[in-house]
Write a structure and sequence with these properties.
Bound molecules: 1-[(3S)-1-benzylpiperidin-3-yl]ethanone
Number of helices: 11
Distance between the termini: 28 Å
Number of strands: 13
Helix content: 25-40%
Order of helices and strands: EEEHEEHEEEHEHHEHEHEHEHHH
Strand content: 5-15%
Strand order of the largest sheet: 3-4-6-9-10-11-12-13
Amino acid sequence: MTGLFSSFSLKDITLRNRIAVSPMCQYQAVDGFINDWHSAHYSMLARGGAGLVVVEATAVAPEGRITPGDVGLWSDEHTAGLSSIAAAIKTAGAVAGIQLAHAGRKAGCTPPWQGGAPLDRDDALAWEPVGPSAVPFVPGNDYIPREMTKDNIRQTQQDFARAAERACQAGFQWLELHFAHGFLAQSFLSPQSNTRSDEYGGSLEGRARFLLETVAEVRKFWPDNFPLTVRLGVVEFDDCPEHSFSESLKVIGWLKDAGVDFVDVGLSLATPGENIPWAANFMVPWAARVRREKNIPVGTSWMITQAKEANEFIQDGKVDVIFFARTLLANPHWPYRAARELEITDPHAVLPTPYAYWLQNWSE
Ligand SMILES: CC(=O)[C@H]1CCCN(Cc2ccccc2)C1
C-alpha cells in the first residue's frame, strides 16, 4: 500500500519514504563555502527521518547568488565542503540531493530578514545582475539586469553542467535544477521578463530554449542512473493561470524528452504582483495534473503540514514525493511524529539507532 512511508524508486535511487526536505536557503555561506551552520543544519534534518534531503539553492556562478550568503558550487574548491554534507545526509539514511540555481535578475539582494532588497550599489559585496532582458523584477525599479549575450548564455549553461559534475563528485545522488521562483531559467520562460527577439525569446520554444539546452548540458555530466529533476514554476497566478499552466505542460513534455526524470512542481514568482491563492496544500492539484497529463513523477510543496493529508496525496496517486520546508524547520523529527500519527509499524525506526532505541517503548 503506497503512502507517506512507502519507499520510492527513481532510476537507481530509492527513497526510504516520500518525505523530502525542501531546499531552504540559509544565507550563511561565505564566498559560497559551507560551514558549521550547514553541517549541523543538514545533519539535524537528515537524522529526522526524511527520505530525501535537498541542499539549499546552490549557485552555479557567483553572480547567480540570491545573496552574498548563498552556498556555491562554481569552483572545484567548493566540492570538499559539500561532500561532507552529502556524506552526513547519507549516513543518516536519507538520499542526498542538491538544488543548483542561478537567481538571474533576482540576484544580489540581502536575506529576507534584512528586507530582501538589492544590495546598495556601493556595497563592496554588490554585483550587477543578469537576465534574458534588461527588465527589472520590480517594474520601474532601477535595479535592472544586464541583458545576457549568447556567449553569456552558453557560459551559464556550462556553469550548470560543471556544477552538476561537482555535485556528483561530492556524492549527491539527486539533482534539482532550479527552474522556478522567477530565477534565471524561469525568467527566460516568462514573457513578463523575457522580451528577447532572438532564438532565446518570443515563441514558447524560444523562451524554453535556455532550459532545454541547460538540461542537455547537465545531462552530459550527471549520471544517467541518478535522478535528474527540475523545480519548475508551472503557473503564473495572473488573469489567466490556465494559459501559463498549459505552456508549462508543453515545456514539461520537452524537458522529459531531454532527460528530466521528475518535476518538483513550484511557483513561478516571475513578477512581484502575483495574486497567489495561498492556502493549505494549494499546489497539490496543479502537481496532480502535471503527473496525470505528462505521465511523469512529481513532487510539490507549499503549506503541506498534516501527515494524514500528505499520506492521502500519495495514496491517491496525486504526487509521488512531498517537499516539506517550515514543517521540518519547526520540528526536524516531524517524520517520527507523522509515523506515529499514521500508526506505521515501528515509527521510531525512522530515527537513527541512538534515538530509536530509547523511543521504541516511549509514549508521551
Ligand atoms: C531559493 C528559493 O527558491 C527561495 C528563496 C527565498 C524565497 N522563496 C520563496 C518563498 C516565497 C514566499 C514565502 C516563502 C518562500 C524561494
